[in-house]
Amino acid sequence: MPRSLHARRVSSDSQERGVKTRQNLIETAGRVFADKGYHATTSREICDLAGVNTAAVNYYFGGIRPLYEAAVSEARREVVIPPEAFAAILEHEEPLDQLKAYYGLMARRLLSPAERSWQIRLVTREMVMPTVSALIVDEDFLAPQVHWLRDLLARMLNRPQDHPDIGRAELALNAPFMVLATVERGVLEAIAPSLAEREREIEPMSRALETFALAGLQALARKCSSH
């Protein structure tokens, strides 16, 4: 084999390994950051869990802060409801049925095992408790989803979007998601031991959250209609 061809192949293999290592670090760090937050996480911990040299974080990212920002950026792409899932929500004609579909989807995503839900938990944690990346996490990327939900609530409550009742309803609906996204799994399981069953508990718990949330919203809608 000509030396130049061999050198190109070695270089290509090295680049491919570098890309895989970089993505492995982002995935591993994302799960740790989602569970513990930025300030409680160390580069050594991430490298140990990723199975790489302890210098890998500095080599590939230049430090733990750029790695954190890379993980948040990666997570943002996963937080928005996928187009096909959003289209399925909009197939429902009644606002209440749309809201049921939305709430069930969000609850299932947050109740799924940690390795499949770190993205949404990390972004929610950063929005609720901003750290070093406050400037790169804003609501712009969620704007279409947020606008749709507020419009839906406005129609259900017969209120303009800027009415205080809309903000109250939105916060009440999203509060359980914030808890699921930011509270450590062990604490959640201490409160609701059934969560330790993971997969088996996803549907029952999501239905319970949906039942409480929608019942509260319907009660608010009745109160609004009487005034």
TrEMBL record:
DNA-binding listed as a keyword: yes
Pfam families: CecR_C, TetR_N
Domain of life where this protein originates: Bacteria
Biased composition range(s): Basic and acidic residues: 10-19
DNA-binding region boundaries: 42-61
Transmembrane stretches, start-end: none
Keywords: DNA-binding
Residues covered by region (Disordered): 1-21
InterPro entries: Homeodomain-like_sf (IPR009057), HTH-type_TetR-like_transc_reg (IPR050109), HTH_TetR (IPR001647), Tet_transcr_reg_TetR-rel_C_sf (IPR036271), Tscrpt_reg_YbiH_C (IPR015292)
Record domain HTH tetR-type: where: 19-79
PROSITE patterns in the cross-refs: HTH_TETR_2
Keyword Magnesium: no
Name the UniProt record assigns to this protein: CerR family C-terminal domain-containing protein
